[in-house]
Specification:
The chain is an alpha/beta fold.
Length: 480
């Protein structure tokens, strides 16, 4: 056998019907062999440990043998366990009856042990291939679900939290987090934690995590199956012992995340004593997620670079710090062409401060300006990397949200309202400004050019302020 793990076989049926020397032959061949105790059925014998395969020995394909085979196939726990039947006093007809009852394979006398082993190995290989296929499909479905959820997140920290939560759940981890740092740094910044989502922006000393330091130093994944024996943890184990710390950690994985070719952080996993061992497939899944996190960081860097270019080009509104109307025109045209060419969707949202004139009249124009400046900063905090915000008018802001439909636009406005509701506006006596919003989504039957989006968004905004109960309106003929 080429596998390091010995396949576990269960001998069932009539002991007197077993081919001579069968058990010894299988043991010498590298199998772990058990037999069904007298007075118990094969299903009862395997209550505590399901074998990899069953060898059922019978004299003939009588009703008892057919019933036994059917018992395996009618049990949900045994549906993928190969059952190889041997009819030592049977013929081709007996083989056919056993196969018809659900046996995975069957042979009749005379039994050649070498052939039997080849058939058994083939069944075990087929079972392993099927299990791997199921795992592949499960991983694919999980990745699809994760990226669907990530696509709905607006901020980088939301994306990181989604990634660590979904990986932590999928792999049943004791700990999963994302740590921003770089080679040579003494400290890292934890931006998301699976088991405690309230932890954000926590500064940690990297010397306490040798797997993170090693991943950053080598720029390669580090997988430690037993931290209590691995030499990488020798120094930290001495510290644990000196401080009388009981650290319930079994395995640790640190996956470096690269941004533009340089390590920028680590995807960090740990399991407890008693947890299932992390497989190579588990590590590969986590590494795929880590690379998704890298894309988030790259987008954040790109957005910062764009922001700096806007400052240098004078494309920012000086009061609010968001983009100017001229920059909005260019950005909307670019997004429209991209969406049209690749059949993508996006939303344009106009956000208006309700009764802003009353604010200026009651508290003065300088106080109103500071309210708009605060709103500009809050809007930028809510943006994803590809999103765009500009000042559209006196008290109006325009947002371009790629890959966002009407529902996503509504969710954005609601989050913005929640953020505004928690913000202190001292210049207006703590009063919380209320917001209205008009949304238009592309593709749209009335939009043939980028310029067509503005009248529809303005009309939706007017409708929101006049008739919509939640003061959010979507262009009524949208197909999004």
């Amino acid at each position: 056998m080429t596998d390091l793990i010995r396949p576990h076989l269960l001998l069932a049926g009539e002991p007197a019907a077993r081919p001579e020397g069968l058990e010894q032959f299988l043991v010498r061949g590298g199998y772990l062999v058990d037999e069904v105790p007298e007075g118990r059925t094969p299903l009862q014998a395997a209550e505590h440990e399901t074998p990899d395969a069953v060898i059922l020995c019978v004299r003939a394909a009588d009703e008892d043998a057919i019933r036994t085979v059917g018992g395996f196939r009618n049990s949900a726990e045994w549906t993928d366990i190969p059952v190889l039947a041997i009819a030592t006093a049977g013929d081709a007809e007996a083989v056919a009856r056993l196969l018809g009852a659900g046996a995975s394979d069957a042979v009749s006398a005379p039994v050649h042990l070498g052939e039997l082993r080849a058939r058994l190995d083939r069944q075990l290989e087929a079972r392993q291939s099927m299990r791997e296929l199921r795992e592949t499909l499960r991983s694919r479905d999980l990745l699809f679900d994760i990226f669907q959820e990530v696509s709905a997140a607006l901020r980088a920290e939301e994306i990181f939290q989604t990634l660590v939560r979904r990986v932590g759940q999928a792999l049943s981890l004791a700990h999963c987090s994302f740590v921003l740092t770089s080679p040579g740094e003494a400290f890292g910044r934890v931006v998301a934690v699976y088991e405690n989502p309230s932890i954000r922006d926590l500064r940690v000393e990297l010397s306490r995590y040798p797997e993170i330091e090693e991943a950053l130093r080598t720029e390669r994944p580090v997988v430690i199956q037993n931290v209590k024996e691995h030499p990488l943890f020798s120094a930290i184990r001495d510290k644990w012992e000196a401080q009388s710390l009981e650290v319930n950690v079994r395995s640790a994985v640190a996956l470096p995340v690269f941004v533009q070719g340089f390590p920028a952080g680590v995807f960090f996993l740990r399991t407890r004593e008693g947890d299932a061992e992390l497989t190579s497939r588990d590590v590969a899944l986590a590494d795929t997620i880590a690379q998704a996190a890298a894309k988030v960081l790259e987008n954040e860097d790109r957005r910062a670079a764009i922001y700096r270019r806007q400052i240098n080009a004078g494309a920012l509104d000086q009061l609010t710090g968001v983009a100017s109307v001229d920059a909005l025109d260019r950005r909307l045209k670019d997004e429209f062409e991209r969406a049209r060419r690749y059949r993508l969707r996006f939303s344009l949202i106009l956000v208006d401060v309700d009764k802003f004139r009353d604010v200026n009249e009651k508290y003065g124009n300088p106080a109103g300006d500071r309210v708009l400046a605060d709103l500009g900063h809050l809007l930028q905090r809510e943006l994803r990397a590809p999103d765009f915000v500009a000042r559209y008018g006196g008290d109006e802001f325009a947002l371009v949200l790629p890959e966002t439909d009407a529902r996503g636009g509504r969710n954005f406005v609601q989050r913005l309202r929640d953020l505004v509701g928690k913000h202190a506006f001292p210049d207006i006596g703590g009063t919380v400004p209320s917001l209205s919003a008009g949304i238009v989504c592309y593709p749209h039957p009335e939009v043939l050019r980028a310029e067509d989006l503005f009248p529809l968004a303005e009309s939706a905004l007017a409708s929101a302020k006049a008739t919509s109960p939640d003061r959010i309106a979507v262009s009524t003929t949208t197909t999004a």
